[in-house]
Design a protein that fits this description.
Pnp Oxidase, Chain A; alpha+beta; 210 residues; 5 helices; single chain; globular; three-stranded antiparallel β-sheet; binds flavin mononucleotide
Length: 210
């Protein structure tokens, strides 16, 4: 067991690595943006989460920039109020990880990491062509969090681009059929196995398998 005192006695790198692993398997996506000088940017993010289905909202957390560095994604979203969220597949994982490197404002991670920009009509932000599941979001709410200086971004889902084969008749998506990975911490990208699906749970009996 690790209590609070033991946790804060750990070497900082060890502590951060441990804490980053605790939330378990998480979505790992590429966020595509553009600045007002038309320079594109893409970076890997693992803090994307569901906020609500109706209206369709997704959130993510952007960390504060360490002293002397910039946060291009955050700046671009605040300037243009648009961004894309693109799922990462196994074939994309190594290139997706590369986007976390500190590239300068003038360097587009699309070129540097081997991704292709895709522009949907009437949408300001670039999408990642290689991704099978591409979402277009508009900034809906922005909250700088006082507790740790991070930035909460909530976007409304305006556009969903996906292959027909991944759509099930009941409306859900088969993410495995697109080979989308799950992330752990800041360095692991896991292939996903077949899951179990259950019908809507009722109090009086064990949920039925679908
Ligand atoms: C697997 C992984 C997940 C990451 N998730 C986040 C995240 O959720 N929020 C964040 O601010 N940075 C995250 N990062 C770090 C950014 O990718 C990194 O700071 C990047 O350089 C930011 O690019 P930008 O300055 O172009 O926005 C993550 C990095 C990795 C490797």
């Amino acid at each position: 067991m690790i209590d609070r005192q033991a946790l804060y006695s750990l070497d900082k790198r060890q502590r951060v690595a441990l804490i980053n692993s605790l939330p378990g398997f998480k979505p790992v996506v590429l966020v595509g943006t553009v600045n007002e000088e038309s320079r594109t940017n893409v970076c890997v993010i693992n803090s994307c989460f569901h906020v609500g289905a109706d209206p369709a909202l997704m959130g993510m957390i952007i960390r504060p920039a360490p002293e002397g560095t910039e946060r291009h994604t955050l700046e671009n979203i605040l300037a243009t109020r648009a961004y894309s969220v693109n799922a990462v597949t196994r074939a994309m994982a190594q290139r997706a990880h590369h986007t976390s490197a500190r590239f300068t404002r003038d360097q587009s991670e699309f070129d540097a990491c081997g991704f292709t920009e895709h522009w949907h009509e009437d949408f300001t932000a670039p999408f990642v062509s290689e991704s099978p599941l591409q979402l277009g979001l508009k900034l809906a709410e922005y909250l700088p969090l006082t507790i740790n200086g991070t930035h909460l971004i909530i976007g409304s889902i305006e556009l969903v681009h996906l292959p027909d084969h991944a759509r099930r008749d009941d409306g859900t998506l088969d993410l495995k059929s697109m080979d989308i990975v799950a992330g752990v911490g800041l360095d692991a990208y896991h292939a996903v196995n077949t899951g179990q699906r259950f019908r809507y749970a009722k109090p009086d009996k064990p949920p039925e398998l679908i």
